[in-house]
Design goal:
297 residues; mainly alpha; two-stranded antiparallel ribbon; 10 helices; 52% helix; elongated; transmembrane; transmembrane helix; membrane; Tat pathway signal sequence
Length: 297
């Protein structure tokens, strides 16, 4: 009868398996496993940190590009607005006028001629030369034509004097700034040392009786008062020293101002004057219901 014991080879294999199953893990093995795990963790941390740096760099680049685009657009917008700033300011501080709608308003710095003793042509005694100088400013320009739409925006009532449609329609109107110069010119003509000269000529305002001339002069005086108060100049007058031997302070009237482009506005008003000679029926008579004043307002 054969023995049931396993052969030598079977016993050796079984013994090796058994030994492997019961042989304890050494400290060296555990340390190797821990080092391997730590190394894997470090690599994972490095990969994550690298990804974070890359993401942060992408966000930074994106933010810089976005900021550059916004800054560029803002610069373009500000540059455009600055170019148009004169017109914007004019529309803000002035009542609507067809001048603003047809003329580019520009500002420039100008130093006033405020000399007390050195006279220019506008300060000369009465005569043809000084009269021509004031005429060149547009002090006596004729009215311009204002459309019905522009008239309403300008403060002209719809029932005020109108031009017949057959002659182009619209409303006759004078530019106020040139009327102010007309008034200032009349004050000059009415100065005590000029009055006799212009009164004797009997032209312009001096065609009327003295009582009307007086009313005209006081009207001009008060119009200019109101204008100066309405657009009060906030500049300041410094002082200078006079006379080296005995220094004395004196007000410096030669100050800088921000001025509009008067000459361009004057030229526009000159070009757009109504004809000097007009037909007898040039103006449309008032219609029923339209205001007709019983006296000068």
């Amino acid at each position: 009868m054969e023995s049931l014991r396993p052969g030598p080879e079977v016993r050796e294999e079984a013994l090796e398996d058994k030994m492997r199953s019961v042989t304890p893990t050494t400290d060296t093995d555990r340390l190797s496993d821990r080092l391997l795990a730590d190394e894997n963790s470090r690599w994972k941390y490095r990969d994550a940190a690298k990804r974070r740096r890359q993401d942060g760099l992408c966000w930074t680049i994106g933010l810089v590009l976005l900021t550059s685009v916004i800054s560029g657009l803002a610069g373009i917008f500000i540059g455009y607005r600055s170019r148009d700033l004169d017109a914007v300011c004019s529309r803000h501080v002035a009542h609507y006028s067809p001048v603003l709608g047809n003329m580019p308003i520009k500002y420039h710095t100008q130093r006033f001629n405020g000399s007390l003793l050195k006279e220019n042509i506008f300060r000369q005694d009465a005569g043809p030369e000084v009269d021509a100088a004031w005429e060149s400013l547009g002090a006596n320009y004729r009215a311009i034509r204002v459309s019905a739409h522009a008239a309403l925006r300008s403060g002209i009532a719809l029932d005020q004097v109108q031009i017949r449609e057959r002659y182009g329609g619209g409303y006759p109107a004078n530019i106020e700034g040139l009327h102010h110069l007309h008034c200032l010119n009349l004050l000059r003509q009415s100065l005590y040392y000029n009055y006799a000269y212009y009164h004797s000529q009997g032209k312009g305002a001096f065609k009327n009786e003295d009582s009307i001339v007086r009313k005209h002069v006081s009207h001009c005086l008060d119009i200019l008062r109101q204008q100066l108060m309405c657009t009060v100049d906030t500049g300041v007058l410094g002082q200078v020293w006079l006379y080296p031997e005995h220094p004395t302070p004196f007000v410096d009237f030669n100050t800088e101002h921000r001025c509009r482009n008067f000459e361009e506005i004057r030229a526009w008003a000159e070009r757009n004057q109504l004809p000097e000679e007009t037909p007898g029926d040039f103006l449309r008579p008032p219609r029923v219901g339209e205001r007709v004043y019983a006296e000068v307002p």
